[in-house]
Here is the input.
Amino acid sequence: MSIWIEEDAKVLVQGITGKQGMFHAEKMVEYGTNLVGGVTPGKGGQEVLGVPVFNSMIEAVSKTDADATVIYVPPPFAGEAIIEAANAFEQAKGKGVIVCITEGIPTLDMIKAAAYVANRPNVRLIGPNCPGIITPGESGGAKLGIMPGHIHAKGRIGIVSKSGTLTYEAVAQTMSIGEGQSTCVGIGGDPVNGTGFIDCLAAFESDPQTVAI
Here is the structure.
């Protein structure tokens, strides 16, 4: 088990045709993440890294049955990207996980987006301005974000942090004593975000694979 993201989760990337989106999508695939598609308005019909690009999230979720999405969209458009993703998951699947990596989203945009997601209890937002979430598997796993995948291993320790680099340090310390991780969550340090420490602690507490946090 793990929290929120299983190791075989079907994942989308919003902004996959952009420089950052394409770079990190490639790293996700290299790690073993089950990337099933990307979303860039106006670029639908293309193919990136062997997966289809869609014009909208509702189309992408409907056609791929994706479990989660990672957002690499410029700050002025990221708030709307979160709302679009939340609506798509609610309408097409009934649930979903949104990971927003983008830094510098205008505060008012983020307040609106966070409130929209909060009214959809089966949709989980992680971030923004965060390294993401990773659930290591036996070989590969699900890496949704910018963290270095190779430092992780499947195990029983849950890790949560605001800081990306402190997350990686915690991973290194668990590995140094022979312990792997169930899931690692970087919640981000912005004043308005989707997931906090208490959310993570409650989820880890109910996860049978996690024995320590």
In short: The chain has one domain: 10-205. DSSP finds six helices and eleven strands in the chain.
